[in-house]
Amino acid sequence: MSKGIRTYVTVYNFDEKDLSLLDKGASLGGSQFFKDVVPLGHEWGDVAHIELEDLEFQARDQRLTFTCETKWKSPVRWLQAASSTQFFENKLIIAASVNRYENYIEGYAFKDQDLLREAVLLDVEAEVISTMYQNDEVDEIDQMIWQPIESFSGECEKLYVAGNKKENNA
């Protein structure tokens, strides 16, 4: 269980050239990453600090993924601001924020500072998750969390990535 809000982020159509630009302009090894990408604190919204948990580039899929953690709120405004920076402009960013009790999940899709989609992906009583942990139903909890996240990501990818490829080829 997380100590705060854990957000899983995927940036689509992110290639090696984009990674090189990001690597030159931002620290990829820690929380400084967030300040380097969106330096103005007022663009972060209600979030004052973000911890970088993991950052990975998947060249084959042309995706950048990272996991971050905040204490109280999802980094929605930071993600929105980041989507219009030189590092992520014209890229679809999909994020899923899971609260500390793993009973509430929100999904977001951003592109060029627009919030394209926002949805509640899971909303159950905390006691349900607690009881499932007590009954050692970890696989069921994982499925409960990841199935709606994967579904949301797939829908957004179809709407905002696949559609753009068709438009670009027309």
Keywords:
about 170 residues; alpha+beta; six-stranded antiparallel beta sheet; disordered C terminus
Description:
The chain has helices spanning 16-25, 32-37, 76-82, 126-134, 138-169, and strands spanning 5-12, 51-58, 63-70, 93-98, 104-111, 114-123. It is α+β, with helices and mostly antiparallel strands. It has one domain (5-169). Strands 2-3-1-4-5-6 form a 6-stranded antiparallel sheet, sandwiched between helices.
Name the quaternary structure.
single chain
Strand content bin: 25-35%
Kindly provide the radius of gyration, computed on alpha-carbon positions and rounded to a whole number of angstroms.
16 Å
Task: List the total number of helices.
Answer: 5
The SS-based structural class is: alpha+beta
Distance between the termini: 47 Å
The counted number of beta strands is 6
Instruction: Provide mean pLDDT, rounded.
Output: 93
